[in-house]
Design brief:
The complex is a heterodimer of chains A (457) and B (220). By secondary structure, chain A is of the alpha+beta class. Chain A folds into three domains: 153 residues, 2-Layer Sandwich (Beta-Lactamase), CATH 3.30.450; 85 residues, Helix Hairpins (Orthogonal Bundle), CATH 1.10.287.130; 143 residues, Heat Shock Protein 90, CATH 3.30.565.10. Chain A has ten helices and twelve strands. Chain A is rod-shaped, with a radius of gyration of 53 Å. By secondary structure, chain B is α/β, with parallel strands linked by helices. Chain B has two domains: 118 residues, 3-Layer(aba) Sandwich (Rossmann fold), CATH 3.40.50.2300; 90 residues, Arc Repressor Mutant, subunit A, CATH 1.10.10. The chains are: A alpha+beta (457), B alpha/beta (220). Chains A and B meet through helix 5 and helix 6 of A and helix 1 of B.
Chain lengths: 457, 220
């Protein structure tokens, strides 16, 4: 189940990571413990061997004293209690030398200890012929005798090495076993992660149900909860996309159905007037479908934008004058007015074309919905509240509970049967968002609807 | 034959009205659910073509209320709602047929003919009485196998009488089948067309029931 990343690197495995880290930590702790044990053992062994050396020296002195007192100095040379046979591998082959007060050799072993340069009592480490020795000198002031007992240091090193190997071997054998166990345990502990991954993998656009978070380990709960929040956001987005697509299909189908119907009527009509009327309706339907497609495309282009890339200062009065001028040539022109207000030179930063589309939509909306004979005014305000561009009519207004829905796509109002794509205000809303402006739709106290675009001051 | 057309879209509604008028129906056109409701309860229609997505009141709600009030007017739903659930809900609410937009005019006309035929209790596409035969699909009338040429209004009147065979049709009922709302009604129209039909089909084909109206066949 290992996945390769695009750059060819294998993503870090939690299991491998834990395995390496735990083994490293275990080894480190064990090494420290082993080091301490080794030194402790070596120290104890040295104490023991030193004590043995002291015991040997004492025995030797006692024996020598006995010999001297019972037999005389001459007998000492004949003394031979040296037996070279080993009774135990660690048995010390005692190396000694006994001297009298003048430094003359009275007695020594077959291989006597190295000659000491200084004559002090106590332990000393001596190197002779490339070998290390532990030497103990003991004096007997009563007999004027001095004994030197020596032991090879190699024995101590060998002993220490054996202790070290004894300590290391079981752990070295246990490490692979420990690794295997860690691998299995970590794998088991990570199983909920794999299960969660399987659950997430089962999610598709059609199934965005939340992942069951109960039963997951505490560490995975935040992940599952975050995932569920993401899924629900995704679901909402997809739902609104789906609704928009369905609505768009429906909205496109209606004018096409009308065009087809009118064309069939035109074909079947015997009467010239009926035929002419039907053909005119075909043209009207085509124009309507074209406008709808244009507005859908405009929204589709505006939707993905995060912001405007190319903005320029736009003087609102100039913009308003252009739009009013354009629309004045259409029907009901005489009821359209421009109120430039008291603030001159109100400028906003933006895209003049898009702002023109927004204002055009607002004015067309008013022309379409306000009844014959009502007045439509385009106004501009500057001042403390920030730049404002508004379109007001003195028609019947919109029921209060419908105001919030007016900017929804394809919403046309419950009681209206006038022709519109239902996208005009949605486009205005989107253009306002892109300009960091807000669109407010409200019924005027004196009657009629007022749409206001407000920029931050 | 009088139809109620309920369609909020101006362009499509206009086309449907013109298209249905080609079959000689008198078509009343309303553009919202509330108006449809009022029209259906106030007047008698032979059939209703009903859109579902309507302003003021949903088409399905209108249909349910109609059936709840025991009104049996044949209803053909013509809508863009194309999901299976919508179709099932529409038919279960009491619709007699369910058509999706965009619809071919020819199919809509054929389905309406079928609807009206079944409403009249007939399975055969031909409306017949003795040797008289009327084919709603071709709008051809024959008498003893011989084609009788009829004008639009003459045909509509004969169609009405044949569809309500053996029942007395009042002068006013026949009149509403000839004219839609807004069309100017000439006085004595029904009498004029009855007279012309008798001349073409024989004097005894349509009987006058004094004070009540006209009947084709035996009045029950």
């Amino acid at each position: 189940m290992r996945t390769r990343l695009k750059n060819g690197l294998t993503p870090a495995s939690l299991r491998a990571h834990l395995l390496v880290m735990l083994l490293a930590a275990t080894s480190l702790v064990w090494l420290a413990a082993a080091w301490w044990s080794y030194h402790d053992a070596r120290h104890e062994a040295e104490e023991l061997l030193d004590a043995q050396l002291a015991q040997s020296a004492r025995l030797l002195m006692a024996q020598t004293r006995h010999e001297l007192e019972e037999e005389g100095a001459e007998h000492l040379t004949a003394l031979d209690f040296m037996d070279d046979r080993e009774l135990h591998p660690y048995e010390q082959r005692l190396q000694f030398r006994i001297l009298d007060s003048e430094g003359r050799h009275l007695l020594s072993s077959a291989n006597p200890p190295p000659t000491l340069t200084s004559q002090t009592s106590g332990y000393a480490n001596v190197v002779a012929d490339g070998q290390g020795w532990r030497v103990l000198q003991v004096e007997d002031p009563g007999l004027q005798l001095r004994a030197e007992v020596a032991q090879s240091l190699a024995i101590r090193d060998e002993l220490a090495q054996k202790v070290a190997v004894r300590l290391a071997l079981p752990v070295l054998l246990a490490l692979p076993l420990l690794g295997g166990l860690i691998y299995l345990v970590v794998g088991r502990a990570l199983r909920p992660v794999n299960e969660l991954a399987d659950k997430v993998k089962a999610r598709t656009a059609a199934n965005l149900a939340p992942v069951e978070a109960r039963g997951l380990p505490r560490e995975l709960q935040p992940l599952a909860l975050a995932l569920n929040r993401l899924l629900s956001r995704l679901n909402r987005t997809l739902e609104s996309e789906r609704r928009f697509t369905a609505d768009a299909a429906h909205e496109l189908r209606t004018p096409l159905a009308a065009i087809q119907m009118q064309a069939e009527v035109a074909e079947a009509s015997a009467d010239g007037d009926d035929r002419r009327h039907a053909l005119q309706q075909v043209l009207a339907g085509t124009r309507r479908a074209t406008r709808l497609v244009e507005q859908l495309l405009r929204l589709a282009r505006l939707d993905p934008l995060a912001g405007l890339s190319d903005t320029h200062p736009v003087e609102l009065e100039v913009l308003a004058a252009q739009v009013v001028d354009e629309l004045r040539h259409g029907a009901g022109a005489s009821r359209l007015h421009l109120d430039p207000g008291h603030d001159t030179g109100v400028i906003v930063d933006g895209d003049a074309d898009l702002l023109g589309v927004a204002l055009h939509n607002l004015v067309s909306n008013a022309l379409r919905h306000a009844p014959e004979g009502s007045e439509i005014t385009v106004g501009i305000e500057g001042g403390n509240g920030g730049p404002r561009l508004w379109v007001a009519d003195n028609g019947p207004g919109v029921p209060e509970d419908e105001l919030a829905y007016l900017t929804e796509r394809f919403y046309r109002g419950r009681s209206t049967t006038t022709e519109g794509t239902g996208l005009g205000l949605a486009i205005v809303q989107r253009i306002a968002e892109l300009h960091g402006a807000t669109l407010l739709l409200e019924n005027r106290p004196e009657g009629g609807l007022r749409a206001t675009l407000t920029w931050r001051a | 034959m009088r139809l109620l057309l309920v369609e909020d879209d101006a362009l499509l509604g206009d086309g449907l009205r013109a298209g249905l008028a080609l079959d000689g129906y008198s078509v009343d056109w309303v553009r919202d659910g509330e108006a449809a409701r009022l029209a259906l309860f106030a007047e008698g229609y032979d059939a209703c073509v009903l859109d579902l997505g309507l302003p003021r009141r949903d088409g399905l709600a209108v249909l349910k209320e109609l059936r709840a009030r025991d009104n049996h007017t044949p209803v053909l739903i013509l809508t863009a709602r194309d999901t299976l659930e919508d179709k099932v809900a529409g038919l279960d609410a009491g619709a007699d047929d369910y058509l999706l937009k965009p619809v071919e005019l020819a199919e809509l006309r054929a389905r309406l003919r079928a609807l009206l035929r079944r409403a009249a209790g007939a399975a055969s596409p031909l409306l017949q009485h003795r040797t008289l035969s009327l084919d709603p699909a071709s709008k051809q009338v024959t008498l003893s196998g011989r084609v009788v040429p009829l004008s639009g209004r003459e045909y509509a009147l004969l169609h009405d009488l044949l569809s309500h065979k053996n029942r007395i049709r009042s002068r006013q009922e026949l009149e509403t089948g000839l004219y839609a709302w807004g069309e100017e009604v000439e006085s004595n129209t029904v009498e004029v067309y009855i007279h012309r039909l008798r001349r073409k089909l024989g004097a005894d084909m349509i009987r006058t029931v004094r004070g009540l109206g006209y009947v084709l066949g035996d009045a029950s």
